[in-house]
Amino acid sequence: MKLIKLLANLGYGSRKEVQRMIRAGAVTDDTGRVLGEKEVPPHERIRFRGEPLDPPFPVVIALNKPDGYTCSSEDPGETIYDLLPERFAHRNPGLNPIGRLDKDTTGLLLLTDDGKLLHRIIHPKSGCLKVYHVNLDRRLEGHEGELFGSGELTLNSDVKPLLPAGFEALGEKEALITLHEGRYHQVRRMFAAAGNHVTALKRISIGGLRLPEDLEEGEWRELTPDELAAVFEIQDQGAADCLKLVD
Predict the structure, then answer these.
(1) Closest by Cα among 31, 40, 37 to 15
(2) What's this model's pTM, rounded to 2 decimal places?
(3) Residue 96 in contact with residue 113, Cβ under 8 Å?
(4) What is the SS3 string spanning 149-215?
(5) Which residue from 55, 100, 123, 163 lies 20 to 30 Å from 83 (Cα-Cα)?
(6) What is the pLDDT of residues 79-92, one digit of tens each?
(7) 134 forms bridges with which residues in the sheet?
(8) d(CA 41, CA 227)
(9) What is the Cα–Cα distance from 101 to 123, expressed in whole angstroms?
């Protein structure tokens, strides 16, 4: 790919704008040598105004989503794209969330420009279980694990019962929920069906990938190959049994 097209696709400007910036000396290699329009060193060696280029295509990034941000650029108010460099909105192909989080749900969110990878992760047969940390308004009653794991719970306005979900109580008003599905407001609706109300919800893992401890709320970074591979790890036999129930 030519240097002008590469930088334009990464969102640094239109092709004409990028061409002007290259001619003005804004693009160099890692030694500081100014690059010409036809020079394309390895991606990791290119510098734009002294800074390394954004991740190349395809890319998967992890974002620690804060409360109050939506996952669609079409929604009013603050969106997850406000947490990324402004030029990311102009990348071609663009970044899309791999399974959305509600506005008031926090935690691990993955974004990618790789459509095939996106569908592979969100497909029910991928084995990419999602684990959520839940805080509740009222005390747990002790029947939640059996209800959520039964495979018979049908939420209001749904026709098909939920797949069995994992449940682990962490305290009187605190629990972990493991889902294979991603239905609308699923965790909140599950606890509503159990007679409770979710006051805080945070996704802490996708597949075998946990929310990185060094990723502060509102921050993002590119996943390493090992972290991406971990997404597809099935964590326990319960996950395997859940997969058997998927059509």
Answers:
(1) 37
(2) 0.88
(3) yes
(4) CCCCCCCCCCCCCCCCCEEEEEECCEEEEEECCCCCCHHHHHHHHCCCCEEEEEEEEECCEECCCCC
(5) 123
(6) 999 999 999 989 99
(7) 175, 201
(8) 27
(9) 16
- Widest CA span of the chain, in angstroms? 68
Q: Which of 196, 65, 220, 208 is nearest to 142 (CA)?
A: 196
Alpha carbon of 214 to those of 11, 82, 170: distances in Å?
27, 20, 23
Alpha helices (runs of H) in 24-170, residue ranges in sequence order? 115-122, 144-148
- Closest C-alpha to 52, from 10, 14, 108: 10
CA atoms within 13 A on the CB side of 206: 30
Q: Which is catalytic among the residues 29, 67, 102, 104?
A: 102
Domains of the chain: residue spans and CATH: 3-52 (3.10.290.10), 60-244 (3.30.2350.10)
Over 70: is that where the pLDDT of 246 sits? no
CB atoms within 10 A of CB 167: 19
Is the separation of the CB atoms in 132 and 148 below 8 Å?
no
Whether the link from the prior residue into 41 is cis, omega within 30° of 0, is no
